[in-house]
């Protein structure tokens, strides 16, 4: 699949490179979940200029330096002494930057934490002494959000305050999804677009796997994910164990509960035998950025009416099916699981469609706040409104019901809900009410 989008990120990285090469060294930190396209982006940004790419795998430091030595020699055509310490190797590279202008990419930078934590202190010392005299465009990237956050944002860490730019990479926008699908399937349907969003959440690597293998509709995507050697089967586990380490059990259970509709604290605690989950939910939200707490729109911060969402679309899908039906995967009954997903798709994709429209609204930049509204403790249709968007410039609100098929829309019931919302919350707003269906994608 060709390189798509990222124009703003490429422009930002180009500005930094120009400063590094013309003025003095710059350090850019690039974060984002696994498979989001960090490595592709940095290679694209470095095209046409000398580049050293160092991938940090979890191994012995001396062995790592030996591999890095070969990479530096090949990339810059210079003599490189044999090093057993990365701190010394980094000093050599920064000193080399006084004579040669080059990009230095260090991928999966957080892995040094497991190899030798002293590396970060050594790098800080070298960076502080050499950055003003050299011309190295240093880009460090990492997939483990918590560790990268700690390394560069924790005031107690040696590299705190050293990054000139910190950039987080997000999934593709809805307009880019349309562009990709149009390039690979002339006359794609709205349901094809929804399936791509439902199963990938806009994550580039997952999209690339589908497109390169000709999977452009729901059925072919499901069949592809459920091949015996499919990376999708273990992707969620690999992504999260990388973040949580060995203590992932309760976090998995919480994410699974939310993905299966048990999205309030009492419901989750009941499922898990009554243990207290407040602290773990807080860490999932604030430290891991994997769940989001939501309240009815315009409700007070201390409102007890709270629900939780899994913010990652792919993980929401993975927990809903690959964890819930793990037994089918273990006995290699992929056909049965594929049948379950396909039959349940109209219901599950209805929830994804709501997220799609919210994302579209966010991308429009027209709104100051986007949420939903409900009253009471029961998850009843008559008590809820799917989307409420408050426009940024005046007291106007968009209130929307989301249905896959417009024939399932009940205008009288919706009008009653809008009126209840007006009386309780939006009495000062001009309200525009809409039905949003597949046809509006």
Outline:
With 441 residues, the chain is of the alpha/beta class. It has helices spanning 7-22, 38-45, 61-76, 86-96, 112-115, 118-130, 145-153, 174-184, 190-200, 204-212, 218-225, 232-244, 249-259, 265-271, 278-286, 313-323, 326-330, 334-364, 411-424; strands spanning 26-31, 51-55, 102-107, 136-142, 165-168, 291-294, 307-310, 367-374, 384-391, 396-402, 430-436.
What does this structure look like?
Helix 1 (7-22) packs across helix 2 (38-45) and helix 4 (86-96) runs parallel beside helix 6. The strands form three sheets. The chain has a five-stranded parallel beta sheet with strand order 2-3-4-1-5, with helices on both faces. A four-stranded mixed beta sheet has the order 8-9-10-11, sandwiched between helices. Strands 6-7 form a two-stranded antiparallel ribbon. Helices cover 49% and strands 15% of the residues. The protein contains 19 helices and eleven strands. The protein is globular and about 75 Å long. By secondary structure, the chain is of the alpha/beta class. The chain folds into three domains: 7-168, Rossmann fold (3-Layer(aba) Sandwich), CATH 3.40.50; 177-352, no CATH class; 365-440, no CATH class. The two termini are 23 Å apart. The protein has helices at residues 7-22, 38-45, 61-76, 86-96, 112-115, 118-130, 145-153, 174-184, 190-200, 204-212, 218-225, 232-244, 249-259, 265-271, 278-286, 313-323, 326-330, 334-364, 411-424, and strands at residues 26-31, 51-55, 102-107, 136-142, 165-168, 291-294, 307-310, 367-374, 384-391, 396-402, 430-436.
């Amino acid at each position: 699949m060709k390189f798509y989008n990222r124009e703003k990120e490429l422009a930002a990285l180009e500005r930094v490179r120009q400063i590094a090469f013309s003025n003095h060294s710059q350090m850019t930190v690039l974060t984002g979940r696994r498979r989001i396209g960090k490595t592709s982006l940095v290679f694209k940004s470095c095209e046409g200029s000398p580049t050293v790419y160092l991938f940090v795998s979890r191994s012995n430091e001396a062995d790592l330096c030996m591999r890095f030595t070969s990479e530096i020699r090949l990339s810059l055509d210079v003599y490189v002494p044999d090093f057993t310490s990365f701190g010394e190797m980094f000093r050599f590279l920064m000193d080399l930057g006084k004579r040669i202008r080059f990009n230095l990419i260090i991928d999966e930078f957080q892995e040094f934490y497991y190899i030798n934590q002293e590396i970060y202190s050594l790098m800080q010392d070298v960076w502080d002494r050499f950055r003003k005299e050299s011309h190295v465009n240093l880009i460090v990237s990492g997939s483990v959000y918590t560790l990268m956050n700690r390394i560069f944002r924790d005031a107690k860490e040696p590299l705190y305050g050293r990054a000139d730019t910190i950039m987080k990479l997000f999934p593709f926008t809805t307009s880019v999804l349309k562009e990709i699908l149009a390039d690979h399937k002339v006359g794609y349907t709205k349901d094809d677009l929804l399936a791509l969003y439902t199963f990938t959440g806009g994550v580039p690597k997952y999209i690339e796997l589908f497109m390169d293998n000709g999977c452009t509709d729901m059925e072919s995507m499901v069949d592809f994910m459920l091949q015996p050697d499919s990376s999708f089967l273990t992707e969620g586990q690999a992504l999260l164990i990388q973040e949580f380490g060995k203590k992932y059990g309760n976090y998995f259970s919480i994410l699974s509960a939310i993905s299966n509709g048990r999205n309030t604290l009492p419901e989750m605690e009941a499922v898990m035998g009554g243990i207290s989950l407040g602290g773990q939910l807080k860490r999932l939200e604030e430290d891991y950025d994997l769940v989001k707490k939501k309240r009815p729109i315009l409700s007070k911060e201390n409102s007890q009416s709270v629900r939780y969402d899994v913010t990652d679309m792919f993980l929401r899908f993975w927990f809903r099916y690959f964890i819930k039906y793990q037994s089918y995967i273990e006995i290699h009954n992929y056909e049965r699981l594929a049948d379950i997903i396909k039959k349940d798709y109209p219901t599950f994709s209805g929830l994804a469609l709501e997220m799609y429209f919210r994302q579209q609204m966010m991308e429009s930049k027209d709104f100051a706040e986007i949420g939903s509204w409900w009253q009471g403790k029961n998850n009843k249709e008559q008590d809820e409104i799917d989307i409420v968007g408050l426009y940024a410039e005046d007291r106007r609100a968009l209130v929307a019901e989301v249905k896959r098929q417009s024939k399932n829309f009940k205008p009288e019931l919706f009008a009653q809900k809008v009126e209840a919302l007006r009386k309780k919350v939006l009495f000062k707003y001009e309200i525009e009410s809409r039905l949003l269906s597949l046809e509006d994608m």
